[in-house]
Amino acid sequence: MFQNDTFTNWTPKHSALYSRQPMRVGHNLHASPLFTDEGLADLIERMPRSHYHVNFMGAVGQSSKTWREGRIEGLSGRDVLSAVRNGQIWVSLQRLEEIDDDYAAMLDQIYSDIEDRVNGFSSYKQSLGLLISSPKAQVYYHCDIPGQSLWQIRGRKRVYVYPNTEPFLTPQFMETIVLGETDEEGMPYEAWYDDYARVYEIQAGDMLHWPLNAPHRVENLDCLNVSFTTEHWANDLRASYAVHYANGILRRWTGAGELARQTSGMGLYAKMGFAALVKYTGLQKRHQRRFRIDFEVDPTTPTGIRDIPAFDLPG
Ligand SMILES: [Fe+2]
Asked: With 100 labelled, which of 51, 172, 229, 296 sits at a CA distance of 20 to 30 A?
């Protein structure tokens, strides 16, 4: 049987489901001192500009047009927490393993506990990002490129997880993402997709994991939310990425319609080689992502933000 250190109720069922079906399992990381108000405030104050995003968004039911990027300037960590608690913002602290040894150790422990439990699972380039978000904030329909899990620390949210197959996720759309032509949030979405989603209402101590690239969206309930995501790469994930990359290039160069998507065998090796050649020789122009910053976090306003003259930040 398992040791159950990170996880509280992992059973062989979860080992069988991992990366194949959406799944929920219990964890005990919400009890860590890293996630007290003091711990979070201290972390916020130590974040370099390269490692955070702050977004303003509409409440549940509003369209994605209200998504904006901002900055944190001249505030204490406690001020930022207060703006999130009372406003409509989403603070994302990224790649914490590069910033803080305690987070790096937690990330290592998490993946070692999963690898102990899932036969044949081996990952690399793991990363951890913390999300502190306002009551009723939402994240729109999107998918992520690496393998990903969501860990709930405080508050409650509803998470919709959709199949990673057509029509919810098309190969053509994945190709535009891996080629950097669009970001993951620009994904086409229809309200009826929800009929095909698994819907989870999660609280502190819940972890969700879903199959690679499965689209999802999130609605916070009426409370401050603290969560983190872990993401990773593995050989099969890298193979899938290379196939999307190569197919995207081939489609653009040749106008081909149907392209093979096998992720093993000779076709795969040829495509991995081709993807590497194109990517590292610069044959395909990389689209540089930029962020337009047009607000500052401000705990004294009802929304938690204040407009500033817009400027661009390289992605
Ligand atoms: Fe996501």
From this structure: 296
In the chain, how long is the greatest CA-to-CA distance? 60
List CB contacts of 228: < 8 A, sequence separation 6 or more. Answer: 96, 128, 129, 130, 131, 150, 151, 153
pTM of the model: 0.85
Q: How far is the CA of 143 from the centre of ligand 1 (A)?
A: 6
- Per residue in 84-142, pLDDT (tens digit) is 999 999 999 999 999 999 999 999 999 999 999 999 999 999 999 999 999 999 888 99
pLDDT value, residue 60: 61
Neighbours of ion ligand 1 (CB under 5 A): 144
pLDDT 10s digits, 236-248: 777 777 777 677 7
CA 194 and chain centroid, separation = 20
| pLDDT for res 1 | 44
Of the candidates 206, 195, 160, the one whose C-alpha atom is nearest the C-alpha of residue 14 is: 206
> Are the CB atoms for 106 and 34 separated by under 8 Å?
yes
Q: From ligand 1's centre to the CA of 243, what distance in Å?
A: 21
CATH of domain 12-169+200-233+287-314: 2.60.120.650
| DSSP state letters, 35-95 | GSHHHHHHHHHT--GGGEEEEE-PBTTS-GGG-EEEE--S--HHHHHHHHHHSSEEEEE--
- Three-state SS for 237? helix
Span(s) in the chain for CATH 2.60.120.650: 12-169+200-233+287-314
Q: Tell me the CA–centroid distance for residue 281 and ligand 1, in Å.
A: 30
Q: Which residue is associated with the tokens 């130590």?
A: 46
